[in-house]
Design a protein that fits this description.
One of its GO terms (molecular function) is methyltransferase activity. The chain is of the alpha/beta class. The protein contains 9 helices and 7 strands.
Length: about 240
């Protein structure tokens, strides 16, 4: 089965493709959307859930999403129609790293920094697309504890929490709010990922089982997820 379709099925019961609960998403969006008529851009939008929730939160706002997955973008279009938001949402089938467009009041990149090669390259791309006075919401993983070699192989070369925040601030950003995913949010995401895929695609049971085993045995003990609301340091 196509990897994009596997991802779509795995997120059927957890449409936010990151380990965050509904209240956390709403709180982060509220802090990132000071303007009622904001222009919102999601780099690596997937199924568009962050954008759709932002548009529901700000009825005068307009959203734009960029993603390489045609399957995910079609889901975003259908959901926008179903929720009565289609006239305020535009999606682009494009590599997020190649996107150019008018400045946005809020740039989102949660769980999709890999599209740019990591956290700091993702922030560099967001900076280029950010309107004056705008904010960025970025979400990425970090190590809560010393990782095993298997965890590093699965998830890449992450840093611990203080180092991650130091990297962001040294890059010229001010965190105005942040959220550390709770144990419940992390576990809820993973149970939904493997369970939703196994339930909706029985032929992918081996894939679901492999993912669950990688989580339980490989990185559950050491992986954390940080979401930050950022503004760029004012230049003098």
């Amino acid at each position: 089965m196509d990897r994009d379709l596997i991802s779509r099925l795995a997120h059927a019961d957890h449409p936010v493709a990151a380990p965050l609960g509904d209240e956390s998403v709403t709180r982060l969006l509220a802090r990132g959307l000071p303007r009622l008529d904001a222009r919102i851009l999601d780099l690596g939008c997937g199924g568009g859930e962050w954008l759709l929730r932002a548009l529901e939160l700000r009825p005068q706002a307009r959203g734009e999403g960029v993603d390489l997955s045609a399957v995910a973008l079609e889901h975003a279009r259908r959901e926008a129609e179903r929720r009565g938001l289609a006239d305020r949402l535009t999606v682009h089938h494009l590599d997020a790293a190649e996107f150019t467009g008018p400045p946005a009041d809020l740039v989102l990149c949660v769980g999709s920094t890999h599209a740019f090669g990591g956290l700091l390259p993702a922030l560099a791309a967001a900076r280029k697309l950010l309107a004056p006075g705008g904010r960025v919401i970025v979400g990425d993983g970090y190590w809560e504890q010393e990782p095993s070699a298997e965890a590093v192989e699965l998830l890449g070369d992450l840093a611990d929490l203080p180092t991650t925040v130091d990297m962001v601030t040294a890059d010229g950003w001010v965190p105005v709010y942040g959220h550390l995913s709770t144990r419940h949010e992390l576990d809820d995401y993973e149970w939904n990922w493997s369970g939703s895929l196994a339930e909706r695609a029985p032929d992918q049971l081996a894939t679901a089982t492999e993912h669950r085993d990688e989580w339980l045995r490989g990185y559950r003990h050491c992986f954390g997820f940080l979401t930050l609301v950022l503004t760029p340091v004012a230049r003098r």
